From TrEMBL:
The lineage of its organism: Bacteria, Pseudomonadati, Bacteroidota, Cytophagia, Cytophagales. The gene is dinB. InterPro entries: DNA/RNA_pol_sf, DNA_pol_Y-fam_lit_finger_sf, DNA_pol_Y-fam_little_finger, DNA_polymerase-Y, DNApol_IV, PolY_HhH_motif, Rev_trsase/Diguanyl_cyclase, UmuC. GO terms for biological process: DNA repair; DNA-templated DNA replication; error-prone translesion synthesis; SOS response. This is DNA polymerase IV. Its cofactor is Mg(2+). Binds 2 magnesium ions per subunit.
Length: 358
């Protein structure tokens, strides 16, 4: 059995902006563009009270909160703070798996400080983050990644929550299905129609039935309903896709305009492929209509996609499969089936003894 901590910075981008600009403290702040086509990248807790959320169109966010202050993102600043925080993590363990700039898993089962309590480690890390960055973080502690990530969201912001091993199954059984990491709004609605509203309801379903209804994800749902997650904290997390996308000030209404923009996006994707020495076998075209509906088209080939010419040939075929209708506000290209082996996460869980101190 492991001791896993999930650290999640609170409203990270917005908090950095409020820290660096005292005039923004206590005010509703959105990091992102304020234009007609802008999107909120992050929102302060003052803004969230009005229903402003990340990935929300800026126009809607401004309508919900007329006093909302838009700040252009400064990713170099966020990366610098993120690196500062990770150095703190490495003082305790080398088993650190960053999920993004603002969150990471830590396996502290065997840690550099020789501390027996994962909760004490989490408290110490939170304190050091606050002292060195003036920012707050929330921490979740439990015996696996699913439970630790679930716990970190319970008492945000500046929270800490432990799900002890001997209480894990009962805790999951009580959880509303919407709170499960990996179950989104659409899946939750589908589960509601099946009579699944809590972890206890989900646990009643046989594995084959869940796989039949949800595909490969059914295996995952079957396990987490039983508080099982055998994924290890992977400090060398494998990239599963590489992509680039762009949002436009004016909707693209012609195939000529679409291909012109895809050419620009391809240049960005190829630079990222060359920088990371990555190639793949599947190309996916993503398109968002002006009414925010999203469609995707993919093609898998039997050779490595590694040049701009190859990408152009494939996206030209994919673009011909889409209806322009009322125009596109966003286009993107992503490369999948990359040149490495995916980690096999389908192994059966091993039996564990709940004896470690948390």
């Amino acid at each position: 059995m492991r001791k896993i901590i999930h650290i999640d910075m609170d409203a990270f981008y917005a908090s950095v902006e409020q820290r660096d600009n005292p005039e923004l403290k206590g005010k509703p702040v959105a990091v992102g563009g304020s234009s007609e086509r802008g999107v909120v990248a992050a929102a302060s807790y003052e803004a969230r009270k009005y229903g402003v959320k990340s990935a929300m169109p800026s126009k809607i966010a401004a309508n919900r909160c007329p006093e909302l202050i838009f700040v252009h993102p400064r990713f170099d600043a966020y990366k610098a703070v993120s690196q500062q925080i990770r150095e703190i993590f490495y003082d305790y363990t080398d088993l650190v798996e960053p999920l993004s700039l603002d969150e990471a898993y830590l396996d502290v089962t065997s840690n550099k400080k020789g501390m027996k309590s994962a909760t004490r480690i989490a408290l110490e890390i939170k304190k050091r983050i606050k002292e060195s960055t003036e920012l707050t973080a929330s921490a979740g502690i439990s015996m696996n990644k699913f439970l630790a990530k679930t716990a970190s969201d319970v008492k945000k912001p500046d929270g800490l929550f432990l799900i002890p091993p001997d209480q894990a199954v009962a805790y999951v059984e009580r959880m509303p299905i919407e709170k499960f990491f990996g179950i989104g709004k659409v899946t939750a609605e589908k589960m509601h129609k099946m009579g699944i509203f809590t972890g206890s309801d989900l646990k009643k379903w046989e594995e084959y039935s869940l796989v039949d209804r949800f595909g490969k994800s059914g295996y995952y749902y079957y396990k987490i309903a039983r508080a099982i997650d055998e994924r290890e904290v992977n400090p060398n997390r494998i990239r599963k896709s590489l992509g680039a996308e762009n949002t436009f000030n004016n909707d693209l209404m012609t195939m000529e305009a679409i291909r012109k923009e895809l050419d620009t996006i391809t240049d960005v994707l190829v630079r990222r492929m060359n920088s990371s020495k990555t190639v793949g076998r599947t190309l996916t075209l993503k398109a968002k209509y002006s009414d925010f509906r999203i469609i995707t088209r993919s093609k898998t080939v039997d050779y490595w996609i590694e040049t701009k010419e190859q990408i152009e040939q494939i996206y030209d075929e994919l673009a011909s499969q889409i209806e322009i209708e009322n125009g596109f506000r966003l286009l993107g290209l992503a490369l999948n089936n990359l040149n490495h082996e995916e980690q096999d996460e389908s192994e059966e869980p091993k039996e564990t003894q709940l004896t470690l101190e948390f």
